[in-house]
Amino acid sequence: MSELNEIMNPIKENICLPEFLVYERPDTLTEQEFHYCPGCGHSTVHKLLMEVVSEMGIVGDTIGVAPVGCSVFAYHYLGVDMQQAAHGRACAVATGIKRVMPEKIVFTYQGDGDLAAIGTAETVHAANRGENLLVIFINNGIYGMTSGQMAPTSLEGMVTTTSPYGRDVLTQGYPLKISELLAHLPGVYYVTRQAVNTAGNVRKTKKALQRGLEYQKKNLGFCLVEVVSNCPSNLKMTPLESNEFVANQMIPFYPLGDIKVPEVK
């Protein structure tokens, strides 16, 4: 036993050092347990966002807007002021909040069925006006909350509950690349597409979220961080299989990286 203690004591002493830290819950997340399906990327993005808010010291100045979809309960988990919006109207609600309280940091947290379908008009016009917001766009290629219908972002040939034979572009259109579409608008300052399917991509996503919030603090305009994610339940896959689907199917069509970045002067 004494020999075991000699081995374990240094480990116990070092386990709290930053270089040994594997996971730590940010104090900006509430104690509420996540309701998301096992393996879903929403919980990872929640953690990253709240880590950034905490590290930037803007907890008391941050307001989030969550509309309908799997993100609708985000206000249970994110330890900042939150406002629920009607389906697709997050950018409109966020615009009102930001204009009334321009000193606040305002973000929306939206899925692809919300932002890219019923909320397309609100998103496009807020971007075109250059509203000083951060829009966090979770793209899992499917309607997650309502049982897996085809979303505007569903891939060609993708089987969903409303495209049981696969998405046919002749009758159902092509997958919509929201980030590329918005990047052309003059009011948009920063657009990037990241993912959370690997540890490396998780780190890049956190950096993108930090940039979007920093640009807002400087009043530079509309910022969009798209996160390509998975939906294990509606893809009828295990979490591991769904992450492989993201890597092998989603990312080739939705390539990662910065799409619109500030010009270096």
Describe the structure in brief.
By secondary structure, this protein is α/β, with parallel strands linked by helices.
Number of strands: 7
Q: What class would the helix/strand composition place it in?
A: alpha/beta
Biggest β-sheet: strands ordered side by side in the sheet = 2-1-3-4-6-5-7
Head-to-tail CA distance between termini: 64 Å
Tell me what the structure shows.
The chain is α/β, with parallel strands linked by helices and 265 residues long. It has a single domain (26-260), classed as Rossmann fold (3-Layer(aba) Sandwich). The chain has helices spanning 2-14, 42-56, 90-100, 112-118, 120-129, 169-172, 178-183, 199-217, 232-235, 239-253, and strands spanning 62-66, 81-84, 105-111, 134-139, 188-195, 222-228, 257-260. A seven-stranded mixed β-sheet has the order 2-1-3-4-6-5-7, with helices on both faces. Helix 8 (199-217) links the parallel strand 5 (188-195) and strand 6. Helix 2 (42-56) crosses helix 8 (199-217) and helix 4 crosses helix 5. The longest helix is centred in the last third of the chain and has 19 residues, at 199-217. The protein is globular. The mean pLDDT is 92.
